[in-house]
Write a structure and sequence with these properties.
By secondary structure, the chain is of the alpha+beta class. It contains nine helices and 14 strands. The protein has a six-stranded mixed sheet with strand order 4-5-3-2-14-13. A six-stranded mixed sheet has the order 6-7-8-9-12-10. It starts with a helix and ends with a helix.
Length: 360
């Protein structure tokens, strides 16, 4: 019994230290902490384990609960990124903006349920929410009918593109052209009803070069095979995260230079517990899922049995309040689409909030 208690305490301590390290390391660029940033992928698992450990010790009235409690406190501000409890704002339909973001995998996934083309299925799924703005990643030109949207901007080069479709006028566009990669980010400056302007980004950060089949096969490998495979996967993950660093820094600079409030939507190929996510969000963008979603918000459906959320809708917190958030669950892509209903803050309230933030 003493040995079992010792093992439990040791595992608990290691899990608590690992979680605290994940929270702390997410604030440092991957180049300065090679390989350590990869641990952010384990954050949902480590949070669940530490919550269970804390409950286990609290029920037994043991002080060892402090291991996990302290680790959770270290990342208190980030816990809502792992599991959302709903909420959101009251909705006045006249003052809202509905946005959908979807990595459509070039419309190449054949539906196992109905046999219909992935393009048809995705367009139908998106239409159910009647969004005002649609952001696609890995968009293949000419493969789907988006004629319901009068205005659009598609990345000007490449086969797999980022795209923004809008019911409202697009008066300015641009793209960031990340170097040495097909991944990219584009933006469209959109004039909303009433004349207010917003800049919407469709973002696809550096892909990690790892297929879902590779990850799902890990459980069937021998120990030697697992060791070799894990080493290769770790190297590719680290390379991808290092490349993402320069991409998110360029994106953040573009957001800071924008003359309009911003919405950033897309496939970040990283979790909320990462330098990439925290850099993009900064101090001014709020995560629509953590404010108005529910559950784990899994978006990368190709990896089974793990709540990996790598697709996001972030909105300027002084201009928008997330009212609703939903996941578009279908087999039309390796990602789930996501949608957020954003309530526009009145111009007077926005000015008041800004003036309060400027106070010393």
């Amino acid at each position: 019994m003493l040995i079992i208690n010792w093992v439990i305490k040791t595992v608990n301590l290691l899990c608590a230290l690992a979680l605290a390290a994940v929270f702390l390391c997410s604030h440092f660029p991957p180049e300065s902490l090679p390989y350590i940033s990869v641990a952010g992928l384990l954050a949902p698992f480590l949070i669940i384990v530490n919550v269970l450990f804390a409950l286990f010790w609290v029920i037994r009235l043991k002080p060892f609960a402090l291991y996990s409690i302290l680790a959770l406190v270290v990342g208190w501000g980030q816990l809502g990124y792992a599991f959302a409890l709903g909420g959101g704002e009251k909705v006045s339909q006249a003052d809202t903006l509905r946005i959908v973001s979807y990595n459509v995998h070039a419309f190449s996934y054949k539906s196992k349920e109905t046999g219909e083309s992935p393009a048809e299925k995705i367009v139908r799924e998106v239409a159910r929410y009647a969004p005002d703005v649609v952001c696609f990643q890995e968009y293949a030109r000419g493969k789907c009918d988006m004629s319901a949207y009068r205005y659009s901007y598609v990345q000007p080069h490449g086969w797999y593109c980022d795209a923004v479709f809008s019911k409202y006028p697009i008066v300015g566009t641009g793209n960031l052209d990340f170097p040495r990669t097909q991944n990219n980010a584009v933006y469209a400056d959109i004039r909303l009803p009433g004349g207010r302007m917003v800049r919407v980004y469709s973002v696809h950060l550096q892909s990690l070069g790892i297929s879902a089949d590779e990850v799902n096969e890990l459980t069937s490998l021998s120990s030697d095979q697992l060791k070799d495979r894990a080493k290769g996967l770790l190297g590719r993950l680290n390379t991808g995260f290092v490349r993402q660093q320069s991409q998110v820094e360029a994106l953040r600079a573009s957001i800071d230079a924008s003359p309009y409030p911003c919405i950033v939507a897309g496939d970040f190929n990283n979790t909320p517990f990462s330098y990439a996510f925290l850099t993009i969000a900064g101090d001014d963008l709020t995560d629509a899922f953590s404010q108005a979603g529910f559950g784990f918000g899994r978006t990368f459906r190709a990896i089974k049995l793990y709540p990996l959320r790598i697709d996001f809708i972030l909105a300027d917190e002084q201009t928008f309040r997330p009212a609703k958030f939903s996941t578009l669950r279908s087999d039309a892509s390796d990602h789930n689409g996501i949608t957020a209903l954003l309530t526009l803050v009145s111009a007077d309230q926005e000015d008041k909030t800004a003036s309060e933030d400027d106070k010393p």
